Amino acid sequence: MKTFPLDTILHEYNFVPLGGPAYWDWNQHRVRGEYWRLYWNDAPGAFIRPEGGAETELLPDRLILLPPGLVYASRCTAEVHHFFLHFTMPEPYREAEQRPFPATDPETVAAAARLAHSFPGTDNLRRYATRLNLLIWSALLEVPDQALPPLRQYDPRIVRAMERLRTDPDADNSRLARDAGLSRNSFLRLFRTEVGAPPQQFARRERLLQAARQLHFSESSIEEIAQQAGFCDRYHFSRAFRKEFNCGPATYRKLAIRRHDGSRR
């Protein structure tokens, strides 16, 4: 029986003021991230405009979902409070159509408003995190099927190999083949058929995706991130990163939304 992953990785969430002398700067010329963004605002007055697309206002009666890789500008004309989630999803959500997706189901919008106004203490963090995950999946249900690639169901042996490569990107093909109960050649053939790339190419892309998230969500230097991603130096890391994302890591780091004090989010 074939299977597919359902894991959600939540990177960051908050409920912050925008506009005027607020701490968060929403007036950005170019923003990008290799993760999903979910937005809800408690009042009108903030806008996003994808490159080559129409401007969308963030309103209290809807959520806005932005898919990985979408490049957009943002602006704010009034003081509002902004609830956001940044998260990573498995296939098929990694390759969604490049445009904003509204989620307007009243129960989903009401759930977002409740979560925005009820940040948890340590005693109920588990329940809050569970509700955040429910909100993510409820909003994603409103993404139209035609905006996503077909769901690929993987051979369970390949799912295990993919999970191993995410945690141990240097795992060699012979070991992966043994764990899958296959000869090396049979494993490589099956992996390429199922995933569309050989194991080492898959592992490198996973490492670069993780590095892209670190560039936005950590204060580590590019040299440190390069080392953690398994590259011998910044030069080789930058070359691979530019090939994958069409810009270098220093430029990519600047594409995170910034607070007024210059730090990222």
Automatic annotation (TrEMBL):
Gene Ontology molecular-function annotations: DNA-binding transcription factor activity; sequence-specific DNA binding
Pfam family, one: HTH_18
Keywords: DNA-binding, Transcription, Transcription regulation
Claim: Transcription is one of the keywords in the record: yes
Domain HTH araC/xylS-type: 156-255
Recorded superkingdom: Bacteria
Record-linked InterPro entries: AraC_XylS_family_regulators, Homeodomain-like_sf, HTH_AraC, Tscrpt_reg_AraC-type_HTH
Keyword Cell division recorded: no
Protein name (record): Helix-turn-helix protein
